[in-house]
Design brief:
Structural class: alpha+beta
CATH class: Alpha Beta
Number of helices: 2
Shape: globular
Number of domains: 1
CATH topology: 2,3-Dihydroxybiphenyl 1,2-Dioxygenase, domain 1
Strand content: 25-35%
Number of strands: 9
Largest sheet: 5 strands, mixed
CATH architecture: Roll
Order of helices and strands: EHEEEEHEEEE
Length: 127
């Protein structure tokens, strides 16, 4: 068995300044500059490390999920800050871009996807 002291996620981005602004100003997370990149603090002592890469290719899958109490209010706030909700043909969304589970499928009660400035996919989830 590994003797793991701490774990964290990470991804790259071509413009660290844009990432810092988005995660701090738009999402309201604490972002700290480190010599190698940025450390984004998540609730309950989680973190994500973002390192610069001029050849960054954004992930084609959701890299971060944020569980929220009121997805409608959170989507409204993000849209008000200029964030667009993503829509996917296999997941019918309402006018806000929220996919609501009617209870006939496994999964969260509602989910909405959006992208960060590097093109990485993020989501809001209401359980």
């Amino acid at each position: 068995m590994l003797n793991i002291v701490r774990g964290f996620g990470g991804f790259s981005a071509p413009d660290i300044g844009a990432i810092q602004n988005f995660y701090a100003e738009v999402l309201g997370l604490t972002v700290a500059q480190r010599p190698e990149g940025l450390e984004i603090s998540l609730p309950n002592n989680g973190s994500v490390f973002v390192y610069p890469s001029p050849t960054n290719a954004p992930a084609t899958f959701t890299i971060l999920n944020f569980v929220v109490k009121d997805i409608d209010a959170e989507v409204d706030e993000l849209v008000g800050k200029g964030v667009s909700m993503e829509r996917y043909p296999d997941f019918p969304a309402d006018q806000k871009g929220i996919v609501r589970n009617d209870g006939t499928h496994p999964g969260p009660g509602a989910i909405a996807w959006f992208k960060d400035p590097a093109g990485n996919i993020l989501s809001l989830i209401q359980e």
